[in-house]
Design brief:
Elements lengths: L2 H25 L2 H28 L7 H25 L4 H25 L1 H8 L6
Helix pairs in contact: 1-2, 1-4, 2-3, 2-4
Length: about 130
Amino acid sequence: MSLEFLKRIWKATLVVGVIVSAFTAVYYDMMFAAGVFVGCLWGVANFIALIAVLTAFVTPDKVNRQRALWLAAIKFPVVYGIGYLILRSGWFAPVALLAGFSLLFTVTLLKALGRAYLKLDERRADVHPAAHP
């Protein structure tokens, strides 16, 4: 799994979030759709922040501990604080926020299943056998 795969996950999640929100707005309720989209945005922001923290700690180069700790110190209070404020605002139904936040996990699962079904990792190992022992 590469960083490019992770970037495709959050980009696909945003696209799916827009589509799901549009259908929800048309067929159910506008505020519920807005909640789904806000939950999706919060989930993607959390995922991007997590990628930044993990790539700062796990790198083939020398780890810049100060940068990694700053990212972690910023990520947790800011992202979770925003999530808390969104929930406390009462503008969106918690179920809508949860549905939007869960889209990231659904997209991740489907993309991983797609990679396994298409055997993309095995093909890559055939092309670069040294990269995947």
